[in-house]
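subagent[fold] <- orchestrator: predict structure for attached chain, return tokens only, no commentary.
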Amino acid sequence: MRLNYLDFFGLQEDPFQTSPSTKYFYNSREHQECLARILLTLELNNGLFIAIGDAGTGKTTLASLVMRDLLQDDNTILALIRQPRARSEFAFLQKLNDAFGVNVEGTGKLSTLILENSLFNFVQEKGLQEGKRLVLIVDEAQEMTPTQLLRIRELLNLETEDRKLINMIFFGQLEFLSKIRTKRFKNLRQRVAMSYMLNPLNLGDTGELIRHRLGVAGSDGNGIVYTRDAIRVIHEESKGLPRDICKLCAATLLSAFTSRANVIDEDIVRVEAESMPIR
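subagent[fold] -> orchestrator:
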């Protein structure tokens, strides 16, 4: 059935998969602006950048794009933590050391102090003595505990007169913003070089995202057509969130295939939106 489904619409792949994919990423003006600010922060070695956005706005895919660029730079040491939640301070420090590939030295049982010293020594050796650019990318930053954020602040204190020894890019949902705005994290806020709020897509970008993903999947524009009213309803129902746009589009494609229709109109979209209680 899957092969017939793709053939019917003249597609080579599923255009509306929701897993993070740089291949299918639609680079809206919102995402372009955020990416430009991230790269500027890294170029200037300014420390911490925070990108805030609702679930489904494309933060994880942006993180993958930044990683793809940084992996091409031999002078950059990159660490990624996709799920920062940890059972303890010890476990969090282990995550940080593992992410950077730090060879933790010590005799006997590891302790929080040994892990902390190993990480700090690594940052100073690579960043100061060897002149490397260290970058830590954290996705789902809203899951970080107050203790973890205090550890992050301590790492950001490692600097020379003109640059930070470690740069960090945090991607978090709206609750992360509320967390770091509290009085307790005033010192951490002072170390934020730049930040950006990723807003949902507007109506125009919603249509462009749909056309972009269909094109990447192999459509020549004739096998499947979304009417202007269909795109308007998709935007309304998804509230401009890329992930929800894709979910709704996937449902409308399946509906159109079942009825052997090549044109997806407003009625098909409304029927599918009403039949999707969980999005």
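orchestrator: received. Logging for downstream: The two ends are 24 Å apart (CA to CA). The beta strands are 48-53, 76-81, 133-138, 166-172, 192-198, 225-226, 263-264.
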